[in-house]
Design brief:
Blueprint (H helix, E strand, L loop, with lengths): L2 E7 L5 E7 L14 E5 L9 H12 L3 E5 L8 E3 L4 E3 L9 H14 L5 E6 L1 H12 L5 E7 L6 H5 L4 H16 L6 E4 L6 E4 H8 L17 E6 L10 H8 L7 E5 L10 H14 L17
Parallel strand pairs: 3-4, 3-7, 7-8, 8-11, 11-12
Antiparallel strand pairs: 1-2, 2-4, 5-6, 9-10
Length: 299
């Protein structure tokens, strides 16, 4: 396996770090529906996070090009000295994820890849679906959400963790009402403790903007949902069912539950990678019989 450090240029002037793993020689020449995969990590994670780098390594061995990337949301806070902006998970807006992904697609296209899957873990999994629904790209061939959470204020407010949700929401709203929405606040729901801008918490967790239920029907590429058997928290509950029932424009969508898996895939990362590769290998080539026919969800 050959790993090459890479710099991903975005249209709004960022230079994001990543690593390109070239496909193994044995299978690289076989024509497939997908020839490369972009992998983005969970909240604050860098390109060398264990989950995306581990899956990328397995993909490269299976003959796929793989690019792991740090999005603009890596780390809690960092400063883009050329542009003067503060970024990181405390400052990012999920709506801007397309800038990062298009930059990654550009880099892969320069290396000869044209049919690209977008895979994310945790926050990255929901970003992958959001991008597929809102910013389709001619090079995007599939979307993979590995334990992407549900972001829905109404769902949180009706759950057993409603008090945690309301406490964080009220803290954020009080800062916004006082004209201090740009200030950092500590939060502990739905993840944390960590830091985030008050107005950013409300955008991300305090509404329905990023609720998959409201836009997953726009996804028109094949879709895979992977989650661990042990993931029972409120942010994960029912996500797979929503995607299988409502993402009706997505062909060949599938849901896979990994036995014994927790959110970090602590002991099952190889199983997750195998599930992703098995699904990618089974996608039909564009223009062939069955290429647009939806597949029955698998448990």
């Amino acid at each position: 396996m050959h790993l090459e450090l890479a710099e991903i240029a975005t249209v709004d002037g960022l230079a994001l770090p990543g690593a390109y793993l070239a496909p193994s020689d044995g299978d690289a020449s076989r024509e497939r529906a997908v020839d490369a995969v972009v992998l983005n990590p969970g909240t604050g994670g860098p390109f060398h996070s264990r989950v995306p780098l581990g899956i990328a390594s397995a993909l490269a061995e299976a003959g796929y090009g793989a690019l792991t990337m740090s999005t603009r949301g890596h780390g809690i806070a960092w400063r883009d000295y050329r542009g003067g902006r503060y970024l990181g998970s405390a400052f990012e807006s999920i709506a801007e994820c397309g800038y990062d992904f298009r930059g990654a697609f550009d880099l892969l296209e320069q290396r000869g890849h044209s049919r690209i899957a977008l895979l994310g873990h945790s926050l990255g999994g929901t970003k992958a679906l959001y991008h597929a629904a809102h910013d389709p790209d001619r090079r995007l061939a599939a979307a993979v959400s590995c334990s992407g959470p549900r972001w829905s204020a109404s769902f949180y407010d009706a759950s057993e963790r409603r008090e945690d949700f309301r406490r964080n929401r009220d803290r954020a709203q009080a800062l916004v009402d006082a004209g201090r929405g740009g200030e950092l606040m500590e939060y502990d729901f739905p993840i944390g403790p960590s830091l985030i801008r008050a107005d950013g918490w409300l955008e991300k967790y305090g509404g329905e903007t990023y609720n998959i239920e409201t836009w997953c029907d726009r996804i028109r590429v094949p879709l895979l949902r992977v989650e661990g058997e042990l993931e029972q928290g409120v942010v994960q509950r029912g996500v797979a069912d929503v995607l299988m029932e409502r993402a009706t424009a997505s062909p060949h969508r599938r849901s896979v539950v990994i036995p014994g898996g927790d959110h970090a895939y602590s002991t099952v990362l190889d199983d997750v990678a195998a599930a992703v590769i098995d699904w990618l290998d089974g996608l039909p080539l564009p223009g062939t019989a069955g290429a647009a026919a939806p597949a029955a969800p698998a448990g």
